[in-house]
């Protein structure tokens, strides 16, 4: 949709250009209209004079021929004017058309009286009638006081139309040339006025972004008002630079101190919280084995241990997120035996599959190299989190882990037949504390940090994480990582 030009949104130079072009266009159009009107009046006056002269001439030449009914002479007289583009008709006193040089009007003497002929024989003076494409003139022909007939003629106004078209074309050409010339001149004038102001605006914008060197650079000549404004601006900036620098340094120092205190607090709290929680979980395990508890107390013990483990996982997630935010995630590349790594993962997760009675498959493409270089710790967190999510949200069916080799990278795909993720949530599910069911009465526990951690760790490993999911049919999370093969012979020699 075309937007309406708003003069208030234009620059000073733009306003000058618009004003100049508008003035030139209006002036040219008005002058062309005046010229066309003048030419039209002059042409009409000349054509009327020509028609009057022709009528008087034909009146004098045809009076005797009409009286004597010399039709052939009248026709010859009319035909002589055919080459001039003038249509001539002669009428008898009873209104009958007897001679004409108009196409198709022959043997006219035997026709009935013509309505125009009856009208023209009553004219005492020449009559001129302007029609869209013609000037029609008529006059009665008399001898003494006796009306012997009438004559009419039609003069074409095509020449006037051609003149008007030529004037319009010339006006359009002049309008285009004057608009171009006016635009160029107004643009030069506008720039001479606005360049100093533009330079001052550029300097102000550089200062707003923290660039203080050479902040005022006015090119060319400028007005005393601009020079005075620049001087005052420089004085103001010079007085505030030192204070701003001091404030920036103070803010930076506070941020560094706050970050240090935050990291220290998280490290201390995570240690202080995880130590007793690990002890609680350990003692609860011992009690479960040796406590010889009845069914009710056994249930209570299981609930207590599950909540302790959940709290420990929450603390670990918060600690991971804090490390990621602080940029303290260090990637340590080391050789990883692919089969052993995923066997370990399978042994850790098989318990969840058995508890929920789900099929669990781990498939490694034979084309995968036996040993790759990666960070085993980060890779473990990525895979465990994805599998943990898959088991958490799958109540029946299966969970599968597929490892494939591509041309320049390799993929880890975790597929489940769980509840799936609604389409409107698939972009935001990787944000922190975002869950498909965010209500307080949700069925599945969790903090919503798992996928956020996975997404961040995948980026640390220079990989990508994608999701394909359909509500009610399950989800597939695919991690794509750059592949770095490690020669087995090199590993053997180092050992």
Task: Please sum up the structure shown.
The chain is of the alpha+beta class and 495 residues long.
CATH architecture of the largest domain: 2-Layer Sandwich
What's the CATH topology label of the largest domain?
Beta-Lactamase
CATH homologous superfamily title of the largest domain:
PAS domain
Instruction: Label the structural class.
Output: alpha+beta
Distance between the termini: 72 Å
The rounded Rg comes to 51 Å
Biggest sheet strand line-up: 2-1-5-4-3
Count of DSSP helices?
A: 10
How many structural domains are formed by the residues? 3
> What value does the average pLDDT take?
77
Residue share in helices? Answer: 55-70%
Query: Outline, from the CA principal axes?
Result: elongated
Fraction of residues in β-strands:
15-25%
The beta-strand count equals 12
How is the biggest beta sheet arranged?
A: 5 strands, antiparallel
Element pattern in H and E:
HHEEHEEEHHHEHEEHEEHEEH
Given this structure, which CATH class of the largest domain is correct?
Alpha Beta
Low-confidence stretches: 438-443, 488-495
